[in-house]
Amino acid sequence: MDAISWRLHLHRALETMYGAIGLAMELDLLHLEGNMAWVRVMADDFVHFRDAITTSTQYEDGEPVTLKVVRESSFFQGLVAPIRVNKFGT
User: Fold this and answer.
1) 20 C-beta neighbours (distance < 10 Å), count
2) Which sequence spans correspond to the domains of the chain?
3) 56 with 18: CB under 8 angstroms?
């Protein structure tokens, strides 16, 4: 997806869950790579952002679009560092 499609899907999810209040949430697309996007939201808005995108059901070209949080961090370094697997493999 391109940046416009990502922004459309994210805003649609926020509007569906929270209406005009959701649309007022500030978000920045930092990086797009394949079917993943790095998105920055204010720390106070993160829980609402996560809830909105994980409960969203959307379609693009007849195919379902799944939005989920893969990793979150208060610091950019926490996002770009390799994922560490704990002893339980999760």
Assistant:
1) 8
2) 3-80
3) no
